[in-house]
Amino acid sequence: MLVRFHSEAEEELVEAEAWYRERSEVAAQAFVGEVERAIRMIAQAPSRGPRGARGERRFVLKRFPYTILYREREEDVFVTAVAHQSRRPGYWRHRR
After folding, report:
1. Taking the CB of residue 40, how many other CB atoms lie within 10 A of it?
2. Which tens digits make up the pLDDT trace of 51-87?
3. Mapping DSSP to helix (H, G, I), strand (E, B) and coil, where does residue 82 land?
4. DSSP helix/strand/coil, 84
5. Which of 43, 62, 67, 83 gets the highest tally of CB atoms within 10 A of its CB?
6. What tens digit of pLDDT does each residue of 2-46 get?
7. Is 0.85 topped by the overall pTM?
8. What pLDDT score was predicted for residue 89?
9. 3-84: which CATH number, 3.30.2310.20, 3.90.480.20, 3.20.20.70, 3.40.20.10?
């Protein structure tokens, strides 16, 4: 299934990668690899992630403190946030 990103989710991903890259090229590559693996898994079985109260699903990265939040739609999977787990919960809920 096709996976699309909200523009703010895409920005979060770019910013997180840059943050890791400033500290370690190896860490940045590992982060990108983990996100790519997560996106492949989400695309293969979008209903795998637990559904929240608003219908949004989540995929928690194993090696990094990030959660990918997404919605299943008929035509695609829409990623609404690549959220650091220490950030204010629910800040992405306004995204459509």
Report:
1. 10
2. 987 889 999 999 999 999 999 999 999 999 999 988 7
3. strand
4. strand
5. 83
6. 999 999 999 999 999 999 999 999 999 999 999 999 999 999 999
7. yes
8. 67
9. 3.30.2310.20
Crossing angle, helix 7-23 and helix 25-44, to 10 degrees? 150
Give the residue carrying structure tokens 């979008």: 46
How far is 40 from 93, CA to CA, in rounded Å?
23
C-alpha span between 82 and 44 (Å, rounded): 19
Two structure tokens written together for 59: 């995929």
Length of the chain: 96
